């Protein structure tokens, strides 16, 4: 029920009233996040993202667009694909335009979703907010972080461990190499230290 209320609020923030079509879209989106091959990129991930968003939503320039980017950023999650963000962004644009959103809003939401590839640093305040929310799991309490790592490994269970470890270590090492993992002052203050400790412990557990 909480997510359903959030879905309604996100669209209304964009100036769009909830319709039967959007209620059906909500059910379909939840079904996507409930697919059996998912372990981390699930409904729980959505709930955790929206919980963290409350801490920094006031920093966003287009808060409703950030919210819709959260809803759709992992809508497509195919196990062997490197195009999930692209397909998720395309789906978001389609749904926003069909609901009556503007082309400009749809384009910004698409760009936000593409930013969750974490290939480059955020370029504006909305991207900073979204990326910090998406990466907030890195600064979770140690037990939740370890659970998250197990879930990620399960999602990539088809990858041989030595390859998974090599790729995972590179990703984590790249995060540590950044001046800060998080982008907003609030998250840097609250979660930066914990995130770095979590990542360093993770790399130690994986070994060389």
List its traits.
208 residues; mainly alpha; 10 helices; 68% helix; 0% strand
Quote the distance from N terminus to C terminus: 45 Å
Strand percentage: under 5%
Mean pLDDT: 96
Give a count of the beta strands, DSSP E runs of length 2 or more: 0
Helical percent range?
55-70%
- The topology string of helices and strands comes to HHHHHHHHHH
Q: Estimate nothing, just give the exact number of structural domains.
A: 2
Output the number of helix runs.
Answer: 10
Shape: globular
Instruction: Work out the radius of gyration.
Output: 17 Å
Enumerate the spans where pLDDT stays under 50 for 5 or more consecutive residues: none
- Structural category is mainly alpha
Tell me about the largest β-sheet: none
Keywords: Hydrolase
InterPro entries: HD_phosphohydro (IPR009218)
GO molecular function: hydrolase activity
Descriptive account of the structure:
The chain has 208 residues and is mostly helical. The termini are far apart. It has 2 domains: 2-120, no CATH class; 138-206, no CATH class. The longest helix has 22 residues, at 185-206. The chain has helices spanning 2-13, 20-33, 43-56, 63-72, 84-99, 103-115, 125-134, 142-155, 161-177, 185-206. The radius of gyration is 17 Å and the shape is globular. One of its GO terms (molecular function) is hydrolase activity. Keywords: Hydrolase. InterPro entries: HD_phosphohydro.
């Amino acid at each position: 029920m909480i997510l359903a209320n959030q879905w309604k609020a996100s669209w209304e923030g964009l100036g769009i009233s909830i319709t039967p079509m959007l209620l059906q879209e909500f059910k379909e989106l939840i079904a996507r996040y409930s697919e059996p091959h998912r372990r981390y990129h699930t409904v729980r991930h959505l709930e955790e993202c929206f919980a963290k968003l409350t801490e920094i939503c006031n920093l966003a320039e287009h808060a409703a667009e950030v919210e819709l980017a959260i809803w759709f950023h992992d809508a497509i999650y195919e196990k062997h694909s490197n195009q999930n963000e692209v397909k998720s962004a395309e789906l978001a644009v389609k749904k926003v335009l069909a609901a009556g959103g503007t082309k400009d809003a749809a384009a910004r939401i698409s760009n936000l979703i593409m930013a969750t590839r974490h290939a480059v640093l955020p370029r504006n305040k909305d991207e900073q907010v979204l990326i910090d929310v998406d990466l907030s799991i890195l600064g979770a309490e140690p037990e939740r972080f370890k659970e998250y790592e197990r879930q990620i490994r399960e999602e990539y269970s088809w990858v041989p461990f030595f390859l998974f470890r090599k790729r995972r270590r590179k990703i984590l090492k790249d995060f540590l190499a950044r001046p800060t993992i998080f982008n907003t002052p609030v998250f840097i203050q609250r979660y930066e230290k914990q995130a770095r400790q979590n990542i360093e412990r993770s790399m130690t557990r994986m070994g060389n």
